[in-house]
Amino acid sequence: MKLFLDTAVYEEIEEAVGWGVIDGVTTNPTLIAKAGHDHEEQVKRICQIIGNVSAEVVSEKRDDMIVEGRRLASWHRNVIVKVPMTPDGLAAGKVLAVEGTRVNVTLCFSVNQALLSAAIGAYIVSPFAGRLDDINEDGMKVVADIVAAYRQQEIKTLVLAASMRNPMHVTQAALAGADIATLPFSVLKQMFNHPLTEAGQKRFLDDYRKTQEAKPAAAPAKR
């Protein structure tokens, strides 16, 4: 399962890219606005250091979304255009997909919606597991059911588990068979943590220092 970072903060993305563990980024205008940047400039900047950068349309009507989606796609070859799970969103996504643009259908909450996304040739569908959990539904079961349905029907659309709230969500997404999980920078950092790793690293370093301290001092060089 590939990991995407769900942020528009360039410094977070740059650090995660340096770790070598992420393959993409998901953004939206809200995240970019919170980061205090211009939408186009920030997406282009992110695309310079990582592939697979989802940029979302904000229009509501089919024709407007098509125009906007084309504009987003023109910014950089790494852009994936996000469209909403609505009739107009899917209609626009169909046109964009036929034109060769990679499309990410966002705000998916059911298998049926995922099937509709696949029908338009979406590159990615994004079920929001955390938001389903928020309303007392099993978000990861929906992710697993979408994966199962796609495999049964030999559908190539990638399943991106979104709205990851904690490291356990990431584990569950992987076990559910998701192709991708997108997560906040804070959750990505938490994935590194385990008390035994920390204790083991401390012990190794302490032992090494002790062996260095126990070494006899080097004899002075003869003149």
Could you say which structural class the secondary elements and strand pairing correspond to? alpha/beta
Number of domains: 1
Count of runs of 4 or more consecutive helical residues: 11
Strand content: 15-25%
Helix content: 40-55%
| Overall form | elongated
Helices and strands, with pairings:
Layout: E1 2-6, H1 10-19, E2 24-26, H2 29-34, H3 39-47, E3 53-56, H4 62-75, E4 79-84, H5 87-98, E5 103-108, H6 111-119, E6 124-127, H7 129-134, H8 139-153, E7 158-161, H9 167-176, E8 180-183, H10 185-191, H11 195-214
Helix pairs in contact: 4-5, 8-9
What keywords describe this structure?
about 220 residues; alpha/beta; TIM Barrel; 8-stranded parallel barrel; elongated
Model description:
- This protein has an 8-stranded parallel barrel, surrounded by 7 helices.
- Helix 4 (62-75) crosses helix 5 (87-98).
- It has a single domain, classed as Aldolase class I (TIM Barrel, Alpha-Beta Barrel), CATH 3.20.20.
- The model has no long low-confidence stretch (mean pLDDT 94).
- The protein contains 11 helices and 8 strands.
- The termini are far apart.
- Helix 5 (87-98) links the parallel strand 4 (79-84) and strand 5.
- The chain has 223 residues and is an alpha/beta fold.
Outline:
The protein has 223 residues and is an alpha/beta fold.
